[in-house]
Amino acid sequence: MFNFKFAPTTKMRSETIRNKFIEFFEQKGHQHIPAAPIVNKADPALLFTNAGMNQFKDFFLDHQQAPHQRATSAQPCLRVSGKHNDLEEVGTDTYRHTLFEMLGNWSFGDYFKQEAIHWAWELLTVVYQLPKERLYVTVFGGDAQENLEPDQETYTIWKQYIAEDRILYGTKKDNFWEMGDTGPCGPSSEIHVDMRPEAVCTQKDGKELVNTGHRQVIEIWNLVFIQYNRLASSQLEELPTKHVDTGMGLERLAMALQGKASTYDTDLFAPLIQAITHASGKMYGQDAAIDTAIRVVADHVRAVAFAIADGQIPTNTRAGYVIRRILRRAIRYSHTYLGFEQPFMYQLVDVLAQQSAVTYPTIQQQQAYIEQVIYGEEAAFLKTLATGLHKLEHISRALQESGNKFIDGETAFELYDTCGFPLDLTRLIAQEKGLQIDDQGFAQALQVQRVRSQQAATIVQGDWHIIPHAAKPTFVGYDQLEADAKLVRYRTIKEKGQQVYQLVLDQTPFYPAGGGQVGDTGKLIAAEEEIAILDTKKEHELIIHYTKQLPKNLKTHWRAVVDAERRRLISNNHSATHLLHAALRQVLGAHVEQKGSSVNEHVLRFDFSHYAKISPEDLKQIEHIVNQKIRANILLQEQRHVPLEAAKAMGATALFGEQYGEHVRVITFDPAFSIELCGGTHVPATGQLGFFKIITEAAIAAGTRRIEALTADAAERFIDGQLAVLDNLRETLKQPKDLVKAIQQLLEERTTLRKALAAYQAEQTRSVKAALHQRIQAIHGTYVLIEKVSVPHIEALKQVAFELKGTYKPLFVVLAATIDQRPYIAVLLSEDLLSSTDLNAHEVVKELAKPIRGGGGGQPCFATAGGKYLGGLEQALTMAQNIFQQHIKKIS
Ligand code: SER
Questions:
Q1: 0.70 exceeded by the pTM?
Q2: CA angle 189, 195, 201 (to 5 degrees)
Q3: Residues in CB range of 237: below 8 A, 6 or more apart
Q4: Burial class of residue 777 (count of CB atoms within 10 Å of its CB; 0-12, 13-18, 19+)
C-alpha cells in the first residue's frame, strides 16, 4: 500500500463525514432534503441525476418557488452519459467513479459568494481539520467567446482565507459549471487538496499540479454561483436571482480525511475490493491491469446496484442501455483480468447491502431482486463474451497483418448484435490493440436493426408475454389514484370458465389485495380505448390487474385510474380497523390480538382474541372511543421504510405470525393511541370516516370473536334503515307518544287474550268430547264414529279422538275438522281391530288425505293428515264410511 505523510488529525468513517456535512449546514439554517432518485425521470434533459442540484433546477430558473431558501443533501450521482460522463476513465485512475455521492449546500436567492466560501472554508479546515497549507482554490478566469469577465469578486473573497499564491484562475472548462446542454449554470470556484507525501510536496509545488489529472492533487469541492440559464440556442440568459450550488465528492473527501492514496482504499470501497480479491484470488496493488479491473468491478457493481434499486434495470434502450453497458464493461474486465467465467458480481450486492444498510436501505430491501437481475445479465453476457473476444482477436490480427487500423461498422455491429458487445466496449478492447472503430458505419447498421426490432411485439416467458425494454414495475398508489402507465407483461387465464387477462403495468396506483384489504378496481384509459380493471392482486412482487379485455395496442400509453370513490370507502374501513383495534385493547385489555381482518367498500370485519362475549356496555364504550377519535380528526402519520426494530421500539402493533421484511411501513393515528405495521391504504385524517357503527359481535371459534362494523356512507345507511323501521312501527301503531310503552301494552294485551282464548278452547274441546259419547254407534259389533268436529287446534283433535279410546272396543274413529281455514283428518283404530283385520290408521289416513289434497301419516292405531282443499272434507268422510262398510262386509 502506498504510504504518504499527509496526515489528517481525524480518521472519520464516511458515515460520520456525511453526517457532519449535513449537520454543519443544518446549523446554518439549511433544510436537509432527501436524495432524489438516481434515474432522473423528472428531467428529459438528463437520463440520470448527475449532480445534487438537479432536483432543484426549477428553483434556480424561478419556475417554482423554493419551499426553503437554504438546502443541503447527500445525493448519489451517476456520471455516465451526456455532458458529464466519466465512464471511460473509471477504473483506469484511482479517484473517479461512475456513481459517487455528492454532498451539497444550496442557496435559492438567499446568500451568495461570501457565505458559500466562508462556510466551505470553515467546514474543511475547522470541522474536518484539513491542513490549510494543502488546499488550493480556483476561480473563473473569464471567457472572451461567451463575453464573460473573470470572477474577481470571488478572488477577493478568497483572499480573506488563503494566500494569493494558492488562488488560481481557471478556464471555462474547469470553472464554469453547466448541468447539461441547457439549464442553470454559472462560474465556479473549486477547492483542490494536495494529498501527496510530504517529501514529494517539497520537490514540486502542488499549485502546478492543480487540474492536471494528478491522482493525489484533486478537486474535492465545487462552489458554483448560478447566475445564468443556458438556452437551447446556446445563449446565456441572465437569471433574475443569484443562487449557490455546491458539490463535494464524499469519496474524495473520505480519501483525504482517512489518509488514503485512492478513493478505492476508503471504507466506501475497501469491503468491495476485499470481496473481489477474495473471490478471484488476485491481489490488489501488484499489477496495474488487475488493479484496474478490480476498481472497475467495485465501482460498476455499486453504480448498477443503486440504479436497479431505483428501478432502472439493464435494457437495450436509453437509461437501461447505459446500465447494461456499465455492467458489461465490468463483466469483460472481470473475465479478462480476474479470470471469472461464471457470474460472480451479483454476490457483491450483499457487501453493498450491508455497507449501505443505514444510509441507502433500498439496496438491502431489494437485495434478492438486484442480485437476480445482475446474475441474469452476467450469465447472458458471459455466454457470448468469449466468442466475441475470440472474434475480435481474429479481426485485429487480420487487420494488423494488412496494416489496417479500422474495424468497420458492420463488424462492430455484428459484435454488438450477436455477442452483446456495446460499442464502447468494442472500442475499449480495440484501443488496447491499437485499433479504431468506424462509428458511422456502426450507427447505420444499428439503425437498420432498430427498425427491425420495433416490429417485434413481445417475448414469451412461461405463460407471460413480456413487452421488452420496460422498467421494473412500481406501486404509486399510496400517493396517487392516477398514473401514466405502460403495459410490461400480460397473460391469459381461465376463471370460472371465462377468459380473463392479467396485466402488469410499469407503474400503478392500483392497490393489490393484501393485509385483509380488497384489491382496487378502476380503468385504463388510452386515446384509442378504455379497459375496465375488475380486480387487483399480487403475485410475489408483481401487481396484477384483472380485466376481460386485452389492450388492442400493447405499446400504448395509459392513464391508470383507480375507482376513487370505492377506494375512499375501503380506506375508511381500513383506518377504522386500526381505531377499533386500539379501542378494543383499551376497553378489554392488552390480551386482544388481531387474528384476521377483512376490509372492503361495504363493511369491515375484525377478528381478535378474547375469551367471552363482550357486554353491551363495553361494546358501546368501544364504539364511543372510535367515534371520539373520528371526531378528533387525527391526521395520518405514514412512515415508509422504517427498520423493523425501530418500528417495534415505537410500540407499533405487529401481527403475530406475520412475516415482515427488514423495513416496514408504520401507520399512526395519534402516537398515544394507534401505531400499526401496515401496508394498506388509509384516510388522510380520521374525520373522513364520518361515523362508526358496530353491527355484529359474535364468536367464530373458541377464544376468537368477530366484530363487523360500518363507517361513513354505509353506517349512515344502516342507521337510516333502523330509523325507517321505527317510523314504520310508529305508523302502524298510530303514532303513539311512547313507542316502547305501546308495544309493551300490546304484548300484555296479547298475553291476556291468549289466556282467555286457551280457556275458551279447553271448554270447547271438553264439550265436543262429551258430545261424542252420544254420537258413537255400534255396527256389527264394532263401535264407529265418522264425523266432522269443531276443535280449535290439532292437539285438540287428537285429544278428542283419544277420548273414545279405551272405553269402546273394537273402535273405528275418523274425525274431520277445519282448523285455521285448513282441512284436517284424524283416524283412530283400537288395537284389537288392528290385530284381527288388515286395517291400519296410517294407510287409511293416506287414502282420506287425497280429496283434501294433502298428506299425512302416523302409527297403525292413530294417524293424522292436513290438506289444502277444504271442499274435500265431505268426500273424505264418505270415503271413510266406505272403508268401514267394506270392513264390515269382510267380518260379517
Ligand atoms: N453542480 C456542481 C457540480 O456538480 C456543484 O454541485 O459540480
A1: no
A2: 105
A3: 228, 229, 230, 231
A4: exposed
Query: Alpha helices, DSSP H only, in 28-146?
Result: 57-60, 113-122
Q: 236 C-alpha vs ligand 1 centroid, how far in Å?
A: 18
Rounded-to-integer distance, Cα 558 and Cα 840, Å = 81
Between CA 353 and CA 369 the distance in angstroms is 12
Cα 247 to averaged position of ligand 1 atoms, centre (Å): 5
Q: What span, in angstroms and rounded, lies between the C-alpha atoms of 326 and 614?
A: 64
Mean pLDDT in order along the chain per 10 residues (892 residues): 42 93 97 90 77 91 88 94 79 93 97 98 96 96 95 97 96 93 93 93 92 94 96 88 97 95 95 96 94 97 93 80 93 95 96 92 89 90 91 89 88 88 89 89 80 53 69 86 91 82 94 94 92 92 90 86 97 98 96 91 95 95 98 96 89 73 90 95 97 95 92 96 95 93 95 95 90 91 94 92 88 95 96 84 95 93 95 96 90 74
H or E segment and range at residue 736: none
Quick one: which of 526, 457, 520 has its CA closest to 489?
457
Measure 144 CA to ligand 1 centroid, in angstroms: 23
**Alpha carbon 514 to chain centroid distance?**
10
Query: Cell for 718?
Result: 344502516
Q: Where are the beta strands (DSSP E) in 587-684?
A: 594-599, 604-609, 636-643, 663-669, 674-677
Nearest to 605 by CA among 618, 595, 615, 614: 595
Please enumerate in sequence order all residues whose Cβ is within 8 A of that of 757, keeping only pairs 6 or more positions apart, or say none. Answer: 792
Residues 647 and 668: their CA atoms lie apart, in Å, by 11
Task: List the residue whose alpha carbon is closest to atom 4 of ligand 1.
Answer: 51
Tell me which of 140, 222, 225, 243 to substitute to probe ligand 1's pocket, judged by most ligand atoms within 8 Å of the beta carbon: 222
- How much distance in Å is there from the Cα of 250 to the middle of ligand 1? 13
